[in-house]
Amino acid sequence: MSAERWADAVQRAVVRVGQASAWLTVFLVLTTFLVVVLRYFFSIGFIWLQEVSVYLHALVFLLGAGYTLACDEHVRVDVFYRRLSDAARRRVDVIGTVLFLIPTVAVIGWMSIDYVLRAWIDREASSQTGGLPYPFVPLLKTAILVAVVLLALQAFAWLLRRGGVVKAES
Question: Model-level pTM?
Answer without folding.
Answer: 0.87
